Amino acid sequence: MTRALAFLNLLLLAALGLLWALDRRLDSAARESRAAGSAFLALGGSGLAVEEVARLELALPGAPGKWLYERRGGVWRLPPYRDGFADGPMLAGLLKSFLESQGTAVGRKPEEERRFGLAPGEAMAVDFSGASGRRLLRAWAGSVAPGERSEECFLSADGDGRILHMNSNPWSFITWKPGDKCPPLLDPRVLPGALGRGPLERIAFDPPPAPGLKEIQVKEILKPPMAMGRDLGPRLEWHGIFTSGEDKLLNDAAAGGYAGFITGLAFDELIGAPPREGEILGSAKLAVTLHYRGGDPAGEQGKTPAQAPKKELDTLILGTRSEGGFHYLFNATTRQVFQISAEKARKFLPDVESMLRAPPEKAPEEAPKPAPGK
């Protein structure tokens, strides 16, 4: 073998070695790229916990500005909107959608933000802050991901150019649309869910509507077992207590319907804290006090008054007529005044006649018939 041929073989071996090393490097880079593309990532990579967030600013497409939500004593409020109560479960769902979901990288900002609905004016923008007011994270929600699983969305975070396809959809917690009078995530109930009330025990009226109905109560009645030993268990009945001392069984549908209306009553406008309480409530039509189950009256079960859990109650007062045919309604627990429609004000007054109307008679329950041949 000549010297020239040996040198040529060495060059070929070196070239083959270089190609092999380059192929290994490209293969490794491809594997890393595939792994990065399929890795599940948290938004912003911060691992921010829901419990760390005490303030939230929300901006939506078509909205005139931002809405501020603030958590105080474990309850979310809207300070700029007359300190109204937020819908706690819905707001918690929004927080978890951003902070507890995971996803994969599918694009980058700003090059592909319009493709994924993340361009300015198209996306939902949220600022998460701590109790001190320091911003913890700024994030955006873009288009809902296509496909059968619509509970997925494209999200991005400030300081991270990646666009993530996440396994959550913050839009599912937003029902607001441009032109709506009330902010998104507002609890529209006169008795907000943040109060955490249990089942109703009784409703008292002041003054008692004719013919002297003082209050309505839920009573548990034990039904006797039927033939064949089938135990029907307890049954709830509505009773009316009158100023005369009389106790009457009420029409269950009418009394229960009234209780459901009161506990689920939605306001038409939140006025806020009463600036002129006497003017608004000076000629109040009716005060309704709701008593809930739970807790023991003072002295029960061997407890002293100081030890006995306090009974929960709420008082709603229907006030004077306001402009536009609405009526003022005052929640003495939350110290908030609302406006409700004339129709809701009419339903607020108990229909005693309907409550006293006997329900249609039902055919007596029959014992189960034996199987054929027995």
List keywords for this structure.
about 375 residues, alpha+beta, ten-stranded antiparallel β-sheet, 6 helices, about 20% helix
Mean pLDDT level: 84
Q: Helicity range of the residues?
A: 10-25%
Unreliable stretches, pLDDT < 50, 5 or more residues?
28-38, 296-302
Rg to the nearest angstrom? 32 Å
Please list the strands of the largest sheet in the order they lie side by side.
1-6-10-9-8-7-2-3-4-5
What does this structure look like?
By secondary structure, this protein is an alpha+beta fold. The chain is 21% helix and 30% strand. It has 6 helices and 19 strands. The protein has helices at residues 3-38, 88-99, 252-263, 277-281, 342-348, 352-356; strands spanning 41-42, 55-59, 66-72, 75-78, 84-85, 102-108, 124-129, 135-144, 153-157, 160-166, 200-206, 213-222, 234-242, 247-249, 269-272, 286-292, 313-321, 327-331, 336-340. The strands form 2 sheets. The chain has a 10-stranded antiparallel sheet with strand order 1-6-10-9-8-7-2-3-4-5. A 9-stranded antiparallel sheet has the order 14-13-12-11-16-17-18-19-15.
Report a brief summary of the structure.
By secondary structure, the chain is α+β, with helices and mostly antiparallel strands. It is built from six helices and 19 strands. Strand 9 and strand 10 (160-166) form a beta hairpin.
